[in-house]
Amino acid sequence: MALEQKVALVAGATGLVGQALTELLIQAPEYSEVIVLVRKPVERWQQHDRLRQVIVDYEHLEQQRDELRADDIYCCLGTTIRKAKTQENMYRIDVTYPLELARIAHEEGATQFLVVSAMGADSQSSVFYSRIKGELEQQLAQIGYESLSIVRPSLLLGKRREFRLGERTGAILARVLSPLFIGPMNKYKAISAEIVAEGMYRIACRKPQGTVVYLSNQLHIAARPVSR
Ligand SMILES: NC(=O)c1ccc[n+]([C@@H]2O[C@H](COP(=O)([O-])OP(=O)(O)OC[C@H]3O[C@@H](n4cnc5c(N)ncnc54)[C@H](OP(=O)(O)O)[C@@H]3O)[C@@H](O)[C@H]2O)c1
Known about the structure:
alpha/beta; Rossmann fold; seven-stranded parallel sheet; two-stranded parallel sheet; 7 helices; binds NADP nicotinamide-adenine-dinucleotide phosphate
């Protein structure tokens, strides 16, 4: 029987997780097309026949509604307070933009949404970052997707173009402390962006119904190929 192919859309496709995910999805037999929302075109993706780059302005997403038609939406958007400079800017990028994308894409027919949140996300938290991730999760759940998968990775590992002191220090600590992260502590262990991406893709293939949250240890399991 022929595989019914779908269209995937990736927001934040140029980021650490987003890039790993995009490279994976363009090889995936489940998708006939992968739309990536970018601020400027990525040269190495320009020649790919199953990938379409859409230059996006999240401040005016409504005007690009027609470009947001896809079955599965993967959201890897986000920033750091250092880059955003103010909490207000960070909130816009980490919460307002993903929510606006989720709302419009759902209206345009998407049934599945997968989002990278963060470990410790909690709308009641006194920590700004955890609080806004929690708020995002809560508001996404109200939109009405058939399948909403929230992934909450711990510290992300991977090669970045920019230097992030906190992450670099965290990665060194994570390596040193690695033997301690066993059993229930496994969810705190740093995780590579590739595993997060692989986990998201394999979760999307299963399309779990309702809202499901995945911690790092569960992403490791989700990322394993299903034995046939
Ligand atoms: N870093 C960690 O250890 C960690 C841990 C847990 C969870 N997370 C969360 O995981 C998610 C993905 O993280 P990541 O490290 O893969 O992200 P990243 O490398 O920082 O990439 C962020 C993506 O968002 C886009 N973006 C940022 N600001 C934007 C704006 N104003 N307009 C349009 N696009 C914008 C970037 O586009 P450009 O390339 O154009 O800038 C990029 O594609 C984030 O939500 C993050 O909070 C991170």
